[in-house]
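Exam prep: given the inputs below (a chain plus iron/sulfur cluster), describe the expected output before reading on.
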Amino acid sequence: MINKSKILRDQHGRDHAYLRISLIERCNLRCTYCMPEEGVKLSPKSHLMTYEEIYDIAKTFVDHGVTKIRLTGGEPLIRKDIPIILEKLATLPVELSITSNAVIIDRFVDIFKANGINKINVSLDSLNENKFKHITRRHEFKSVYNNILMLVKEGFTVKVNAVLIKGFNDNEIIDFINFTKDLPISIRFIEFMPFDGNKWDMSKMVSYAEVMEYVNKAFSKNSIERLQDAPNDTAKNYKIKGYKGSFAIISSVTNPFCDSCNRLRLTANGQLKNCLFSATESDLLTTLRSGKSIVPIIQKAVQAKFKVRGGMNTIKKLQEPKLHSKNRSMTTIGG
Ligand code: SAM
Ligand code: SF4
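Solution:
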């Protein structure tokens, strides 16, 4: 009988039922807010989790109450053994989903369907081909755009993530919302967040309040509908009446959703992060490889979780480069 003791409950009463697993540090794009042009310093291959290790660690979490696993990266789909990873994780009693930049996602439709994956989050920061190239430093707009349409046609539930950067794509907020008129997708505007090496400054961030200013100017009050957010949802959801899709704002900077946080993160080199903003990590992989139980380490990491944003509980603290440079870049955390 599996011991379902509450090792995933933290000191603030939050139960962690959601594990995000980063499968890879590498990526086929170079989004400016996420990765430097030359890429990031990669872990040696021997330090990365194999598919068996990913399964073993995931299973331990599932045995202790995780019901949702999202695969991310880097770009998860460029990992060569992704089909085996999906097959193995699909045997666990969890909702399995994936976050991808969608550049090559068309190759995976059958594999997703065979493994019960029907929720896919895709990143797209601009509907303009030149701007897309500017932000991702790659020429892949058409593949991503067409793949979003394809995923919808194939019946997947698609959320599109757009990180907003002032003066760059905030003038596309309404275009993005209008993209949901005939397409049943959810566009999620993400407040630009600080991570190591991404040259964050608060003035580049477009806040929840500013997004709503654009929306309120473009649409009449009666046509803007506030939707019910799902439990533990990080987004505030809205729709324009009559539109097939919806939009949302993920405001981790101005309005953190830490109270209802139920997430833990596992990096591709097997480190547990108890918060996206946390500066510390717990090494599960070395312990697993030594043949010992990872349960006590998980429990300790969960207990050490700060109430708000890895301890950066004020915007002032978030603005201190010293504090966020203790964290990794987003591509090696797994967003
Ligand atoms: N490569 C995949 C993708 O782009 O969807 C998965 C990994 S990516 C790190 C996951 C998400 O993190 C993306 O939606 C991306 O836009 C978001 N992200 C990366 N850096 C960010 C930052 N500084 N602030 C806010 N979101 C960020
Ligand atoms: Fe790659 Fe995703 Fe980071 Fe862009 S946001 S560089 S697609 S990992």
